[in-house]
Amino acid sequence: MTTATSTDIVRIGAKIYAQNPDVIDLPAYVPIFHGWIQRRILDGVPIDVADYAHVPDGPGVMLIGHEADRSLDLGEGRPGVLYQRKRDGEGTLEDRFAAAIAAADGVADELEADAAAGGVAFGRDEILLKVTDRRLAPNDDATLDALRPVIEAALARVRPGRDAEIARVPEDPDGPFQARVTLR
């Protein structure tokens, strides 16, 4: 990891996975997300909804926002809720990781409670964390070593009492830093 200060890292994402992806009907998420904008249930400034369902293993259906994006993501061939912060991060780096995980949980909670989402359920025992600034957090073991204590502290806040295994996702060394968290 570079010598960037923790205040420099803002673009943090968290994905939690659908337990029953077979019930997902992607076109249904477009009006769901539009409804969230209309009802103003989101923090920040929502901008629009984009349908990328035609892209294999792509972003699925996205609710684009000024500060953060939310999506029913299809990446890795595993549907799930992805919350991706883009700007205006507040607090410590630990606060930011905890906030990203909590925001992904919030999106999942809203979808699980919405009948239009078809009864989708999301697990809370596996989380994919991303830092999408490759300059500040290259996808290497040094970044994982530097971020591990911060991630562990954030997990203690949002998943208290759980042991976590944290492993770097090394598929693309030139891609963004990704760590898979498995909770026990």
Task: Name the features.
alpha+beta; 8 strands; 184 residues; 3 helices
Beta content comes to 25-35%
Major sheet characteristics: 8 strands, antiparallel
Q: Whole-Å distance between the termini?
A: 28 Å
In DSSP terms (H or I, runs of 4 or more residues), the helix count works out at 3
Helical percentage = 25-40%
Number of strands: 8
Can I get a quick summary?
With 184 residues, this protein is an alpha+beta fold.
Please outline the helices and strands:
Layout: E1 12-18, H1 26-39, E2 46-52, E3 60-65, E4 68-73, E5 80-85, H2 93-113, E6 122-131, H3 141-158, E7 164-168, E8 177-183
Antiparallel strand pairs: 1-5, 1-6, 2-3, 3-4, 4-5, 6-8, 7-8
Helix pairs in contact: 2-3
What does this structure look like?
- With 184 residues, this protein is an alpha+beta fold.
- It has one domain.
- Helix content is 29%, strand content 29%.
- The chain contains three helices and eight strands.
- The chain has an eight-stranded antiparallel beta sheet, covered by helices on one side.
- It is globular, with a radius of gyration of 16 Å.
- The two termini are 28 Å apart.
- The model has no long low-confidence stretch (mean pLDDT 94).
